[in-house]
């Protein structure tokens, strides 16, 4: 059995070929797709976050989906912690989680290649002397984790506007349990182990540092095993979760073949995400259901993970993306024992 959700990049473009022309379209259609996914029996609605592009402020969207759905998990994959005010983020996350009834799965990380150079500087942040921007992201994350524990730390005003409870105050609204639903987007084996030591779940996408030259799914499976080993050594009491994301398209209609039939021979790709970091990018899976079942059964990382996030081409519209999800849930997942 696996949790199966979708991961939307939230793109929009003013193009005749796009059904998502504006930011408003992207946001409102995201809510509609989450509702449709829940009705189809999917387990999660997850969204990419990129500043200066896409769905850059996720919490209003997450709260809206929480108010319109009952069961489905609602997540981010991922929030770039270089840009975040940890205290304000905890307030927003607590409110969204309470509206959703404790269904928020908050994916965070040190960030990915950006739309602008050092965009976090425009948000008022810069690393301390001797630190990198990645160090700054991890420090912001550590503050979030600490504050989410819900312990008081702020000295109350002796003449407050409202009566205070006794003792030091915490950030409000506090959502119990959210601390154990934080995920870290890890691009390397080392950061996966660090996430385990912090008690965070692991998000591993279709891109990771190339560490050894093996096929992508083999390297990703090794990363997951390193994470689980570090988790066991850290002695956390709650169970770790691991997600992987994949581009998977079951070709069941002429339109499916027209859109994705040419991706059937897709392979891993190697590139550089910066001057010093060689990365491997996983293949796309696109085939008729019986062939797709055989291909996915060979993916070692999917086998290791408990959660599979299906990347969706959101600009093709809600109805078509719901069809893509239904095809996987109906024709592929049962044959693999995921349902």
TrEMBL record:
It comes from the Bacteria. This is Alkanesulfonate monooxygenase SsuD/methylene tetrahydromethanopterin reductase-like flavin-dependent oxidoreductase (Luciferase family). The keyword Transmembrane helix does not apply. Residues 9-251 form the Luciferase-like domain. CDD domains: Flavin_utilizing_monoxygenases (cd00347). Keywords: Monooxygenase, Oxidoreductase. SUPFAM superfamilies: Bacterial luciferase-like (SSF51679). It holds the Pfam family Bac_luciferase. It comes from Actinophytocola algeriensis. GO terms for cellular component: cytosol. GO terms for molecular function: monooxygenase activity; oxidoreductase activity, acting on paired donors, with incorporation or reduction of molecular oxygen.
């Amino acid at each position: 059995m696996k949790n199966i959700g979708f991961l939307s990049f939230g793109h929009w473009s003013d193009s005749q070929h796009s059904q998502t022309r504006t930011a408003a379209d992207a946001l409102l259609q995201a809510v509609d797709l989450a509702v449709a996914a829940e009705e189809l029996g999917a387990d999660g609605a997850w969204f990419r976050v990129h500043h200066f592009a896409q769905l850059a402020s996720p919490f209003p969207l997450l709260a809206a989906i929480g108010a319109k759905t009952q069961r489905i998990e609602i997540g981010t994959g991922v929030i770039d912690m270089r840009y975040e005010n940890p205290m304000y983020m905890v307030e927003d996350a607590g409110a969204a989680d309470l509206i959703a009834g404790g269904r928020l799965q908050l994916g965070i990380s040190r960030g990915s290649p950006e739309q602008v150079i050092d965009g976090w500087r425009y948000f008022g942040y810069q690393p301390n002397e001797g630190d990198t921007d990645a160090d700054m992201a991890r420090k912001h994350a550590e503050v979030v984790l600490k504050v989410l524990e819900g312990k008081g730390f702020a000295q109350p005003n002796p003449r407050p506007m409202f009566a205070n409870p006794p003792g030091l105050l915490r950030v409000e609204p506090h959502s119990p349990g959210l601390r154990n639903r934080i995920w870290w987007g890890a691009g390397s084996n080392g950061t996966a182990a660090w996430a385990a030591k912090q008690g965070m779940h692991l998000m591993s996408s279709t891109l990771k540092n190339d560490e050894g030259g093996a096929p992508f799914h083999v390297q990703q499976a090794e990363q997951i095993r390193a994470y689980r080993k570090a988790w066991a050594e850290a002695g956390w009491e709650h169970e770790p979760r691991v997600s992987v994301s994949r581009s998977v398209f079951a070709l069941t209609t002429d339109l499916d073949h027209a859109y994705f039939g040419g991706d059937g021979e897709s392979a891993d790709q190697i590139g550089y995400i910066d001057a010093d970091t060689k990365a491997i990018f996983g293949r796309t899976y696109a085939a008729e259901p019986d062939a797709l079942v055989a291909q996915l059964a060979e993916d070692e990382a999917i086998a290791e993970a408990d959660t599979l996030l299906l990347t969706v081409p959101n600009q093709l519209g809600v109805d078509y993306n719901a069809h893509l999800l239904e095809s996987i849930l109906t024709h592929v997942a049962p044959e693999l024992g995921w349902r």
